[in-house]
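Exercise 7. Predict the structure of APH-domain-containing protein from Trichocladium antarcticum.
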Amino acid sequence: MAGRVRQPIDLRVLEKWISKHVPEIEVPLDIKQVRPPSVALPGDHDQHDAHLADHAQFGFGQSNPTYQLTAADGKRYVLRKKPPGQLVSKTAHKVEREYRIIAALAKTDVPVPRAYCLCEDASVIGTPFYIMEFLDGRIFEDPIIPSVLPDHRRAIWADAVRTLAKLHRIDPRSVGLEEFGKPTGFYTRQVNTWRAICDAQAAVRDVETRDAVGPLPHFAQLMHFFADESQQPADRGTLIHGDFKIDNLVFHKTEPRVIGILDWEMSTIGHPLSDISNLLTPYFTARLDPRRSVNVHRGFLPRATRGLPTPDEITTLYFSVVEQPTPHNNHHHHHHHHHPSQQTAAVELSLAADHHTAASGADRRREMQWAQAFNIFRLSAICQGIAARQAGRQASSEQARRYGDARTPLAEFAWALVQSARASSPPSSYLASSSSSSSGGAGGGGNQGGEEDSSSPTGSIPCHSKIPQDPHAACPNARVYLPLNPCFLDYPAASYLQTWRIRHKITTSTGKATI
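Solution. The predicted structure, encoded as tokens:
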């Protein structure tokens, strides 16, 4: 199969189409394709974590080619198009789906870029495309957000959490998205799909040694636990982003508030806890040994970073907002209505904990334990996929090897979290309801304890004996998060699951794969 050809866009044809359909975008246009920044290895990323959004807005490893348009009047826009060529998957790279959810959310209090138009006529620039607003703000690649003061860091995280809760409290029917995904059974489908993917990946043999990649540690027990619907979080379906994390948000240039959520490629109707557990990932991977794993950021250990809210503060704020009724806002809400100050954010984080009743807290903690264990398992499966690609020599870098090797400690960690979840009756608080967490006031965030104490339960995770910990092996500048997709290895981002389903003829209902 030939390599992907970069198709130049015929600017005259595009300008003619825009003049007819979106006259407010003034032609002639200046156009430039934006390449995603190359992914840094641990320790070598840019000192300035907040770029102006010129470059960062175009994301890591996006599979849909993205262009910046500058109109005759100087206004900037973003064009996203389907890649050229025959796609393995009909549903990956669905720019139509991205456009649909961004346009639908414009009527809500969820901050999204304004969507201007969708063109499904492939004759204009070769493939379908849509045009949206360019958001001029800050994007933080490092979710520790080292460049800001503690109060500002706390307020930024609080608004990210608030923004996610606003998305989850929307009734898909109220914005015409009831057909956007299946309303029930999200985690059951995920378990079946990932079981089949892992079986397929485990069977891949190294082209030279003929050794199989092999199953993840504790794979059978993990699957047995996750497939038990009595253990799963209560089934519910909301709009989910699919890869919600700090660096997929654009923040106001000076204020600690989200002005837009980017990268909707993975969005669907699914279980809301999958998004919140994804946001919390760096708090969990911080416990891993940085010599054995990847993206271990010690700054997420308890009290290691001033102003960083604890996992418990995040979940309690999230639930307090998600349970509020959805306001009936009109268009362009997020440019005008009141936004909380840094002080308000700190008070909100504290108040949320006060309203967190013991009964609902126990259920929520149990559900969060399950969701986070599944999230860590999913990361181990993605790393196993990288190991499988390396076995077939589709990926051969040192970085690929490190990610592939990380499957083992991640799977061990997922198993430790499962054991903790099973043992908690009543549930143990590894998302601790800590008495000290809100005592830090506006900026302290409970961080005045000085050095981290790995035995402390405050906002922490069980220290399982199988998880090697070495506080001296800190890697302060490590890349912080494991992205949802191994896109830094040239894998088309949204098509990771889909490609495996098709390549191995996976049926989601049974989870059986034929290779």
